[in-house]
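Q: My collaborator sent me two sequences in one message, no labels, and asked for predicted structures for both. Can we handle them in order? The first one she listed is below.
A: Yes, handling them in the order given. First sequence, followed by its structure tokens:
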Amino acid sequence: MAPETLYASNGDVSIAYETFGDPAAGEPLLLMTGLDFQMVWWPDDFCGQLAARGFSVVRYDNRDAGLSTHFSSARRESPWRALLGLTRPTYSAFDLLDDALAVMDAVGWKSAHVMGASMGAGLAQSLAAAHPDRVRSLISCVGMPADSSPVRLLTYLRFGVFLKLRKIKPAASRDGAVDNLVLIYRAISSPAYPFPEQWARTVAGISYDRSPPDPTSTQRQLAAGRACKLPPLSAISAPTLVIAGEADPIVKLKGGQDTARRIAGSVFVSYPGMGHNLPEELWPDVIDRIVAVAGLA
């Protein structure tokens, strides 16, 4: 049975979220998702296994994704221009952080353990640096240092996968759009592990039905990070776990390594054959490490 979708408010912005476990009883854990991805890409079973280990899990849609408030742009611009700060921002990363805090407030959490993947890793890092009283521990997954300059960020990226993604043509139908989402997920997935074809196709369909892809949302989410100066990672005092995939087709291994180096006392782990996702075969070890950094072991 799918969890109920609830909504938090940050001013005029509505943020959709779902819970696994009792938010009032378990150890609070907030999951922050990546660029363009909806919260349903955090697998239900992964969330359920975390709940079984004592967490109350909340996942949510960033603004401009899924069932949360969407914005619009006068024209479609290159994501690279947005990444370099050359696109007029619609909102800032601080607005995205306030969305996360609004979700926490809605479920009654004064603080929580925070796990972010990809862009969500950068948001989670920034939340821990800017609001240390709200973050109990930080888990940064397949990300890079959020406080890097735009030029520095480019040095962490592998560009081959973007050439592959450019070949994916816009779809004219639901089936075509679902096929495209599966192709995108396959391109970033872990090469040493079986591709979860059935799960990816099911979630791609759910994702499309919740909110069809918006080709302009990428530029707005990317531009948000360049619209403000984020606090340095050295300000993070929360216990931190940094997770990286050694076969990540998007983020080089040094993206995770440098993140860990900048956060005092952090624990770094990399997995051979892991890409820009968390393959199910690694969940037991990953969850054990999350439990440990959260102090539940």
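Q: And the one she listed second?
A: Here it is, processed independently of the first:
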Amino acid sequence: MVVLPKIKGFICTTAHPLGCAQNVLDQIKLVQSGGPIKGKSGKALIIGSSNGFGLSTRITLAFGLNCPTMGVFYEKPPSPGRTATAGYYNTVALEAELNKAGLFAQSFNLDAFTSNAKERVISEIKEKWGQVDYLIYSLAAPRRTDPIDGQTYKSALKTQGESLTSKTINSQTGEIYQITIPAAEPEDILGTIKVMGGEDWKLWVEALQAANCLAPEFVTMAYSYVGPELTQQIYRKGCIGEAKKHLEATTRELNQILAPYKGKAYISVNKALVTLSSAAIPVMSLYITLLYKAMRDLKLHEGCIEQIIRLFRTKFFGATGPELDGEGLIRMDDWELQPEVQKVVEKLFADVTTENVNSIASVADFNNEFLRLFGFGIKGVDYDADVNIEPENSFIS
């Protein structure tokens, strides 16, 4: 069938198999163009491996560090007349390239929050690897069922204390309008911590430990975001921020667990980018649109793959080991938070209107990056041609 983008709200309900494949190939080529990463290779498990930072991490570790990889994700497969989700096609394409390169790859289309997923993945680790050297946690989801209490929790995009009225953008129309974000109730905060905090990350490490699957000097890393003062009310001081604080506290707990293995847990605070998650956060979408403009003008812009390459090539496997700030965090948002960048963004945010948005912001960039997430707008792909929407795969599901 011919596959075209169908946008509904903050998502695209279709994905292009060949576009997703080309996107993966472009990322692989970028990793390879810099030569091998000088660091310790090892068996790597990536939770949330099918999109965004997780996908770029799997690509970087495999093609930059020669790591055998396993990836866990939860994507919809294709059905008659309906495409799969983009992450599904991303992983089909990545597995094909990994196989061509002679690199071990196993992918699991399972709900990583469940005990069943952990048991299934760990069973494969014990059979194929014995132990794992790296666990990268890059999972983003709107809800989670706690395997212990059986309750389903939902995350909330709300502030704390009092509501926030601010500008946001409809990126499809370019309209700038005011939005009021309500203050959170206690259950909103609890739900967001349960979904986006460190609880599931810790459960994965504990499950690997219980199965004797932690290799000596085991390393685990989760991805996070802090953001500038401009977005503090919705992010760091909002429900999401409480979840991120929980994630940071979890690092300290994990470091106690990993001490006997001479292992270590880290958090990488990454830059704001167009992802499946960030596109849905009010205020953040406008901030990212303006940030792209400022960082491109200052020649500091990075996408997911550039960010992750820099993380492992210079920040994690640097000459002196992982580069940490005073709170023990790896700061990949260092370029984003440079004063000259934020000064420009703050002025643009104050000045932006529907009438001038296309001249002072990167609306086209935002929309192009959004469509790329689903395999559209990528050079070298014939979008008028019929494409097979049901490619073969070897996923465990």
